[in-house]
Fold:
Amino acid sequence: MKRRVEPEWLDELPAEDPRAVGSRRDLTRINRIMGNVGILGRLIGDATAGRPPRRVVELGAGDGRLLLELARRLAPRWPGVSVGLLDRREAVRPETRAAFGALGWTVEVITADVFDWLERPEAQTDILVANLFLHHFQPGSLAELLALAARRTKLLAVCEPRRSAVALAASRLLGCIGCNDVTRHDAVVSVRAGFVGTELSGLWPVGPEWRLREEGARLFSHAFVAVRADGI
Ligand SMILES: C[S@@+](CC[C@H](N)C(=O)[O-])C[C@H]1O[C@@H](n2cnc3c(N)ncnc32)[C@H](O)[C@@H]1O
Structure:
């Protein structure tokens, strides 16, 4: 399947639109079905060898619930982490902020375009996470984004849709579990824009200071990690 990037409806809707709110709720269930929290947890655990970061930022974080689930797994070993939730739309609910606080993690909601933010000096961080986000971009923009990320972080952990017939078939069945029209549209578009093989490694800025790993993960996901050879 040739990679095809098309606009997604969720990106166009205001955060408070009921269809957007419903679709973000659907994404929590889809992330669970895909197993993305577990995949990211394993990638980050392996790449850090358990060494705790000071700051973690998710790019395209949406309502922040994906990173909250990841934080719940990591917080017992990693106390006091500072979290940034970056998205063009401000969709993080007060109870999500409070839940990070209850884990002892501080949270900053960053409402910005990813390219603008990565240009800023304060974008410096130990770990960047991207979940169901990089597939939004054409190869040229994606190469630019990855080059900016490489300047700002010591570790990038990514979980994206896998561009496969199985994932495409599953994305067409999301109506069966009650997902709304926005989710059903965006899921099919996302799989067609997803990744296989070493497509992300091929766009990462080459350099001996980076160790890369890229692979299919579980049934529907594609995982990529870039970590500085000297660790985080
Ligand atoms: C499919 S959602 C994924 C949300 C979250 N990572 C999750 O797994 O639930 C993609 C998110 O990317 C955001 N987004 C799209 N383009 C963006 C950009 N250029 N800069 C920042 N955020 C962007 C959208 O607003 C949306 O919340």
